[in-house]
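[stage:ingest] chain + small molecule (magnesium ion)
[stage:ingest] validated
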Amino acid sequence: MDPKRKSKVSLFDVVDEATFTTKLNIDDGGTTAHGFDCSNMSPVNRWNGCPYSQRYYDMLQKRTRLPVWHQKREFLKALKDNQVLIIAGETGSGKTTQIPQFVLETIDVESAYKHKRFMVVCTQPHRLAAMSVSCRVAQEMDVTIGEEVGYSVRLDDLISDKTVLMYLTDGMLLREAINDPLLWRYKVIILDEANERSLATDVLLGVLKGVLKKRHDLKLVVISETHKAKKFQNYFFGAPLIKVPGRLHPVEIFYTQEPERDYLEAAIRTVVQIHMCEPPGGILVFLTGEQEIEDACHKITKEVSNMGDEVGPVKVVPLYSTLTPLMLNKIYEPPPSPLTKDGLAGRKIVVSTNIAETSFSIDDIVYVIDPGFAKQKVYNPRVRVESSFVSPISKASAHLRSGCVGRTQRGKCFRLYTEKSFKNDLQPKTYPEILRSNIAHTVLTLKKLGIDDLIHFDFMDPPAPEALMRALEVLNYLGALDDNGNLTKLGEILSEFPLDPHIGKMLVASSKFNCSNEILSISAMLSVPNCFVQPGKAQKASVDKAKARFRHIDGDHLTLLNVYHAYKQNNEDESWCSENFVNYRALKFADNVRHQLACIMIRLNLKLCSTDLNNRDYYTNIRKALLAGYFMQVAHLESKGHYLTMKDNLVVHLHPSNCLDHKPEWVIYNECVLTSKLFIQTVTDVRGQWLVEIAPHYYDLDNFPQCEAKQLLKKIYKKKVETRNKTR
Ligand code: CDP
Ligand code: MG
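[stage:predict] done
[stage:export] tokens:
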């Protein structure tokens, strides 16, 4: 241990008077080169014993100006006196980056290392936020990311024995609770962005409420956006609420006179107008999805470059959840410099999904464009379909969007809808995810946590009884729960996979069908966003041609396998990907996911194996394993030419993106999407007799609605009995 390390402070003894707030009064007289009075401050970093770098002081100066710094003493005192605390404040006030560091100040270095446990964790609903904010905080603390400060997200982490502060996704903390139900590794848990009410955060709230009763030494800090803080306060029996002052400057809000017919086109037009007519300052545009954002970035860049030197240069930066942290850094970069010495000022334009509403705060944004839409998950338990729709946002969301400006200077928010529509059409708030999701995986997790009575579990907003029943039913059909609702051996195994239980079941079955290597690849490919680059109109022909090279006529799952194999055969080469219109990042991510899943399979003693490629059962085995996971997502081709989903009898159509060269009688599908019609997407040809072979408990005809498929299945069953009798 370095002798120069600062004096020890035991947990929750607030550093009297000498917290950094008072030590680092900005001194315009400049007692030091950094403009701080650092005379009382150790020049040595107590976490790693190294002298502080210049960057540390530069960042510290900025940190002390964040609104949250004014409440540091109040916060530390309240943390000492209470088990649960609620912090509320607007985006950008410094909650995510500073609060965990304040908590760390109360922790003694030596005991932190001696007990070899993470002391402080901070959850994030988005993996990208967890990764990027941990890097930022490591810089602010002047330590190396992955050492004292780390992150852990699904299928990826960067931590060490020395880690004292970990940012992790809420889903990861929930998984930790499975192995360590009282979360002994943690002293202080910070639930950040609780207002977003992600599924995992909602479950964690209930779980932590139970843990806090049993562990009086554990502290919980819930961070929320101002408007929703009261609800958390009530949920935690009136825990104290600390409000961080937010926006300091006025924000002007503009509405359109008439409704816009095409929000995308309107958004791009507004960007260009602002760039032409408004004073310098970054623009933040909210759109709905990755592809739309990439297209918009492309169009904006093109339009601006067509305008020549009439306008300044622009830097257009996308922001969505599947970016890498490195790509994300661009949002914090300054705008481009003018092209010539007296040229027009450059501008940064960030085009983002609703992830920028709260998870990322970009200081130099002055203009926000809010077209009023977002992609939202909707689950209909009656037909077991979870889909993503582009739908109007809520008033709460619109408020968050306009709150993305006005922190460092005056701002303007352009709402691309009418004021009347804002008042009359937008619903007040976005429903929590738990009310809009398929909760099968959540139920599995809760069962694994030993919470059997789900009806009485203390959910902040309980899921609809129907959704709960559906989840129990699905898990029972998968064999994860027995008829009494208890976790089976298979259920225990499925809960080890951080994935939808259908995929888990498919992986478990794949060992028996001698194709687990292939199913691993397919599962990984299903876990990443679209691996094909979506073409603009001009490129469509070449993209289709490239796609045809990977096509497997029996279905999209097998096509995904072909893409993955081709990527590996071509040495994971980035330029090969772009030549073939394959998304390199998606493939790289899939490869990583595959590796992690393979590790889980090995740990669970599930055999990794393949059928010989020349064996004619090679693809049949894979298709059977797919069906073993997805036997509840099967559709039958009716004589009228459309498909009908099994048991639910929904009329569906094959999505035009499919690669089949025929219309199979039976298909399994991965998801339903509703656009002009209800489409089934990612489909593969399966056989009727496999249904009765692999899932006779589900295809039990006594409980089957009348349809053509029922008659066919009846015949298959009959034939099966006949063959059995013959062979006797
Ligand atoms: O959580 P909250 O929205 O209150 O604020 P924060 O995420 O802690 O951000 C505080 C400040 O750090 C803002 O001014 C951000 O722009 C800045 N920041 C940054 O420059 N780079 C990052 N990677 C993260 C935050
Ligand atoms: Mg935050």
